[in-house]
Design a protein that fits this description.
Radius of gyration: 19 Å
Largest sheet: 3 strands, antiparallel
Order of helices and strands: HHEEEHHH
Number of strands: 3
Strand order of the largest sheet: 1-2-3
Number of helices: 5
Distance between the termini: 22 Å
Strand content: 5-15%
Structural class: mainly alpha
Number of domains: 1
Shape: elongated
């Protein structure tokens, strides 16, 4: 096994162990939620703005988006996909490849996955308004599969691009 592959596997296993430890330590979660809460509030703001552009009358209060006489949706820190985003950053950082391609991949990958998550929030709010019976399945199953598939697409496209640079001898 090449040295860079061993390094990559070691870093990914260490990351997984760290996430497992943090998930099992009850003192870590409140601190993480508190630190990440502004991102959930920002996502709620962006969701409300997108829904307003789409013609729905909505109000945002903190990280809750609601219609005056209708559905309400709370965008919680758990909805933000931070473990997936962190995994992308760690995987791209640990993988062999030029630093510029790593930085570009991290920036573009995070932007793409965050934009897709915003689409998810808007879609789920729309479903809650127009097809509430479909909300649970779409939230719990469909969007998880879509986000996982998007993560894998971002990873494999970036990895192919990074590998091409290494093969061409531009590993600096």
């Amino acid at each position: 096994m090449p040295r860079h592959t061993k390094r990559f596997v070691f870093i990914m296993v260490a990351f997984a162990a760290g996430v497992g430890w943090a998930d099992g330590d009850p003192s870590v979660q409140p601190a993480a939620v508190h630190a990440l809460q502004p991102a959930a509030t920002l996502a709620a703001h962006a969701t409300a703005a997108a829904l307003g552009i789409g013609g729905l009358e909505v109000i945002r209060d903190g990280n809750i988006v609601y219609q005056p006489d209708g559905v309400a949706m709370e965008i919680d820190v758990g909805c933000m996909g931070f473990p997936m985003l962190a995994l992308l950053v760690v995987a791209m950082s640990a993988y062999a490849g030029p630093l510029r391609r790593k930085l570009f991949g991290i920036g573009a990958g995070l932007a793409a996955l965050c934009a897709l998550n915003l689409v998810r929030f808007v879609h789920l709010f729309w479903l809650g308004t127009h097809q509430p019976a479909a909300f649970a399945f779409t939230h719990d199953v469909l969007w998880r599969v879509i986000l996982a598939a998007a993560f894998l697409c971002v990873w494999f496209v970036w990895r192919r691009w990074a590998d091409a640079a290494v093969a061409a001898g531009r590993a600096h």
